[in-house]
Design the sequence.
């Protein structure tokens, strides 16, 4: 795998995580009684907007909890796996690198310090198989939320 292919693969995982968050917010927005989120494209830097499912400061974990609580009542098979947050956190807060300037790179994430030490919480070889598996994993979660959105009309 080239560095360009590695970057593209990791980008696919990140874009899917962003898409998952958007779908979760769309579901919760619709449950709030709104019908269209087209107002988002009109917003410009400095504008103010009311707090709602699209504009609030909920974390991915909070969004999944809210979604699962709502969707789980009617569609328990469409609940999102909350462990997807661990993937997002590893990518967002981890260190990606290698001792050689070529893939596969290793994704390392560390705990908060305690007594002058940190614990390695993630050590992931980011190779073709991992990238493909994570892209598919997040895509399946997106499809669950999309199906729930369809089901609520």
Sequence:
């Amino acid at each position: 795998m080239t560095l360009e292919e590695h970057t593209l693969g990791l980008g696919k995982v990140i874009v899917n995580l962003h898409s998952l968050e958007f779908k979760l917010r769309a579901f919760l927005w619709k449950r709030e009684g709104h019908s269209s989120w087209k107002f988002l494209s009109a917003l410009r830097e400095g504008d103010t907007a009311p707090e709602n499912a699209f504009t609030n400061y909920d974390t991915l974990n909070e969004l999944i909890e809210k979604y699962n609580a709502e969707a789980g009542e009617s569609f328990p098979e469409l609940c999102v796996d909350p462990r997807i947050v661990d993937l997002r956190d590893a990518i967002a807060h981890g260190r990606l690198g290698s001792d050689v300037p070529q893939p596969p790179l290793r994704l390392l994430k560390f705990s908060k310090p305690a007594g002058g030490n940190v614990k390695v919480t993630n050590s992931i070889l980011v190779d073709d198989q991992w990238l493909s598996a994570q892209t598919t994993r997040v895509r399946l979660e997106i499809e669950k939320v999309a199906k729930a959105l369809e089901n609520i009309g």
